[in-house]
Design brief:
Blueprint lengths: L8 H4 L3 H26 L6 H27 L12 H4 L1 H17 L1 H8 L4 H10 L4 H19 L2 H18 L2 H14 L4 H17 L1 H11 L2 H6 L1 H22 L4 H19 L1 H16 L1 H23 L1 H4 L3 H15 L1 H36 L2 H40 L1
Helix pairs in contact: 2-3, 2-21, 3-21, 5-20, 6-20, 7-19, 8-17, 9-17, 10-15, 11-14, 12-14, 15-16
């Protein structure tokens, strides 16, 4: 039973075993009293009743004495304030201090921890656990995976998602995008990988022109004078403009050395250089990047990235056989074999673990001691009495039973000696 768990009504209620043993011990005491009364009434009828009376009388004395001793540990017998009773409630602070001192002197002193850790082969145990046939990895699948799933499911997803989104946003803000874009564009142009992009832009422009030629006709018509509209020259002019643009786009698409294509490549080269070396261009890119990051759609996308990652981790944790199968599972097995066969690696890990545990004892030992002492001091007398009684009270009832039986046997022996002498 964990004595440091937070008190609950269920934890403080007497257990069924304790209640049963109380009834047994009390029942024996009552039975001895009844036996004493019957044997005392029949004492003159046969000498054997004298032995029965002696046994019952001594058994009552032994049972009452042990009842008093057991009860005095936890409360005042019969509610009477007898000195040196209710020992545990009166000394709970001292009990807490003594328990804390015991932990400190036997477990939490760095020298003691270091001495105990010298004989502990952590690396070997971990290696056997991981390399064992279905043992370590099986427990890892069933235990650690469930723990990971429970932890992921219990976290405050809104708050954690905000933290992840903020961290990703900070990483994006810290990223110097302009030089990266410039280097990528320069490398693409050096290898001719920008040409399909130019061809795609030209084809896209041709499709846009074909789909929106009525806009050009309307623009020319609105801007033309009344004479041109009356003579129909505005329609002719619009057709010429549309045909000219269409021919220009066709020539650019079919002639790789078209002057406008060369101008476009020259502009791309200038853009690549500016992205890498122009402070003004870098500032413009940073402003655009900041606007994109601050856009609500971008924030929603970052949230979606975290949710997808969390869902994937949950699926892996809930299906550990799939997560630890294949190369990952083989890697764990190989790690276990290496830990067992490589003495230098094992010694290094054991030394690291020993130093870590000793450091924890040195840094947190006093805090643990204070925690134990203050926890026990913070309990009220009723709480600590009920908890300790539930923890050891069942065994203490055996003292009453044994006292009743041993007392009866002693009384029987004394009566036998008295009769024989």
């Amino acid at each position: 039973m964990n004595l440091f768990r937070r008190p609950t009504p269920a934890a403080e209620a007497p257990s069924a075993g304790l209640q049963r043993m109380r009834w047994v011990a009390t029942g024996m005491l009552v039975a001895m009293a009844a036996t004493y009364l019957v044997s005392r009434a029949l004492d003159d009828r046969h000498p054997a009743f004298g032995f029965v009376r002696a046994f019952a009388e001594a058994a009552m004395v032994g049972g009452l004495a042990d009842w008093f001793a057991v009860t005095a540990l936890f409360r005042h017998p019969l509610g009477l304030p007898i000195p040196h009773t209710a020992i545990i409630p009166r000394n709970k602070d001292r009990i807490g201090t003594t328990l804390a001192a015991f932990l400190r002197d036997n477990f939490l002193i760095p020298a003691v921890v270091a001495r105990r850790m010298r004989g502990v082969d952590v690396a070997g145990a971990a290696g056997r656990w991981l390399a064992g046939p279905g043992g370590g990895q099986g427990r890892l699948r069933l235990g650690a995976a469930r723990l990971a799933a429970d932890v992921l499911a219990s976290l405050d997803q809104k708050r954690l998602g905000g933290m992840v989104r903020g961290a990703m946003g900070q990483r994006l803000r810290a990223l110097d995008v302009a030089p990266m874009l410039g280097q990528a564009l320069s490398a693409a142009m050096a290898e001719g990988r920008h040409l399909p992009l130019l061809d795609g832009i030209i084809r896209w422009a041709a499709k846009i022109l074909a789909a929106n030629d009525h806009l050009i006709r309307a623009m020319v018509h609105d801007r033309a004078g009344s004479v041109m509209r009356w003579t129909g020259l505005d329609e002719t002019l619009a057709n010429k403009i549309i045909d000219g643009l269409d021919n220009l786009l066709f020539e650019m698409a079919s002639d790789p050395e078209h002057p406008l294509r060369e101008k476009a490549e020259e502009g791309l080269g200038t853009l690549a250089d500016d992205l890498q070396h122009s402070p003004e261009m870098k500032a413009r890119v940073e402003r655009v990047k900041a606007e994109i990051i601050d856009n609500p759609a971008m924030q929603n996308w970052l949230d979606g990235v975290w949710e997808q990652a969390r869902a994937a981790m949950l699926r892996m944790a809930r299906d550990p056989d799939a997560a630890l199968a294949g190369q990952f599972g083989e890697a764990l097995g190989q790690l276990g074999e290496t830990l067992q066969k490589d003495p230098l690696l094992g010694a290094t890990i054991n030394r690291f673990v020993r130093r870590a545990v000793v450091g924890m004892a040195a840094d947190y030992g006093d805090g643990i001691v204070r925690l134990v002492s203050e926890t026990v001091r913070g309990w009220d007398a009723g709480t600590i009495t009920r908890r300790l009684e539930n923890a050891v009270g069942r065994d203490l009832q055996y003292i009453r039973i044994n006292g009743t039986l041993v007392g009866g046997l002693v009384g029987l022996a004394i009566h036998a000696v008295d009769v024989l002498l």
